[in-house]
Amino acid sequence: MKRLSLLVVFLSGLLPLIALAQRAPDTLSKIKAAKSITVAFSADSLPFSYLEKNNQPAGYSIDLCKRVITGIGRAIGVPALAINWVVDTVPNRIAMVASGKADLECANTTQSQSRMKDVDFSSLIFVDGGGFLVRADSTVNGFGDLAGKSIAVTTGTTTEKRVDAMLKERLINAKIVQVKDGVEGVALLESGTVAAFASDKIKLVGLAAQAKDPKVFALLAEDLSFEPYAFMLPRNDSAFRFEVNRALTQVYLSGEIDQIFAKWLGPLGRPSGLLAAMYLLNAIPE
Prior knowledge:
alpha/beta; D-Maltodextrin-Binding Protein, domain 2; 2 domains; 6-stranded mixed β-sheet; 3-stranded parallel β-sheet; 12 strands; globular
């Protein structure tokens, strides 16, 4: 009986480990078998990821993502991987990666603890701050001026939570209007339906630049939040995460990141000290 009891105890401890191993994805084998990779991205996040007029994805994150995909293809022995680009919203992109419908997500997605319950993340690819876009002819010059007004925020983003928290913390009575994407948010702001649109600052700059008359808009000087960007990956797949991070390291250390930054963010100047430090700290040594 004692021997049997010990066996039962051993098996009871082993079974959860077996179940975990069975649940762990093998994304590299999946990609190798299909000779293709499915990548979710945002279509309205210039200069990070957006759709060009020929319906091809482009942007800082997309260029960086293509380098990562090249590294993955090299690692699995399929150098010419086909790429299935899929446009969707932030909540849907999270669901796609969590369910395995997308192998990788490349956009301007903030790494957060709440999201890490469903997906994993690569090394950081950028750091930004959240802020507010307003009309240039508006009387809104700071957070306090938003009292009694409406603020557009994209549904399912970290900004949505942070705007809500900021309003409660500062006792500002403002209405949050949920929108599906940046295009809708800017349209509501342009029409005067809302007094501000909250999002990541560089994304707001990109959206304003794409508007019919960029001079209509202004960016508040105050920072709403700190936004560390990373690529979303399937959870519990350390082999896949290793290849993604190895490719990012090569881009950071080779100097390619300077070319990518200059191409998409050059008009904003050189990388800030914080961003330059981020590249260095996220370059994993051999």
